[in-house]
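Q: Hi! New to this. If I give you a protein sequence and the SMILES for zinc ion, can you show me the bound structure?
A: Yes, paste them in.
Q: Okay, here:
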Amino acid sequence: MPFSDIIGHARSLGLLSRSIALGTLPPSLLLTGPAGVGKRRAALAVAQALNCLAPVRGGQFPIDACGRCSPCRRIAKLSHPDFLLLEPGDSGNIKIDAVREALEATAYLPFEARARVVVVDEAERVLPEAQNALLKSLEEPPRATFFVLVTSQPETLLPTIRSRCSRVRFGRLAPAEVASLLMGREKMDAAEAHAAAAVAEGSPGRALERRTRGFRAAREAALGALRAAAGRSWQDRMRAAATLAPKTASGEREELATRIRLLATLLRDAALVGQHGADAVLANADLAGEIERIAPAFDAGRAARAFEAADFALAALRRNASPKIVAPWLVVHL
Ligand SMILES: [Zn+2]
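A: Thanks. Here is the predicted structure of the protein with zinc ion bound:
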């Protein structure tokens, strides 16, 4: 997984690549940002770029791994003896034994690599006692060893650990970036990928977690409700309410919540089209035509009220209200 295979994060990846090219990569790094945006992949890319036998120079990045040589492939498969990955075990935590074992390995020079890399994924799961053990190594990094801590919750790490590491921040991806990743890497079809991206909050990982739900159908139902609300026919609204309520044997509540979140993204897009016309950057860009048709019905005031209704409906679902009551209520209040 070279830098160039990672979608988005051009600035953060550029920073890492430049330091590797200049030989100034700090021995302890802390990669922070929302879960599921590609931080762990970036950590692997760092390990590969440090050890690649045929690095690519002067392309999109000052230096990047080839992705094909033996060290690159073994790092990607997590089977390189000088690449150590610590991640939460079955207990959900990273225990002191695992940390000690990894640190013992760093007492020796790398077996074959130019640089040994220890990646701690979900570093917030390192138990406090184990954090202290790790801290000692961060304070006196062994020769030719780099530590890369990856976390979405840096505030839960010991302040001493945070201050030892150079932080590189990763942000959320744009909906178009999430969609393109889902189409490319996950082979989703375009409509499914765009619908998933609209509620992914900039995190492909989050989109994949919710993957099985059928985003495309969910977004159709949400769009149907907005279309009906934009029209004048009361019967259409009632039919849309029936369509918005999912007909699944189980998980109805969570499914309706997904539909309402999608509805909110469509509503936001409609309000944006109202304000900025064709220049608006939409979460559901593939539905721009549909959104332009409903936008005139949702002026700023109505859009704001509809958002409130959607929030209220989501809160009601969290309090275990019945989807059969929440869906029609929402459609009436759009
Ligand atoms: Zn390589």
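A: The two ends are 45 Å apart (CA to CA). Let me know if you'd like me to explain how to read the tokens.
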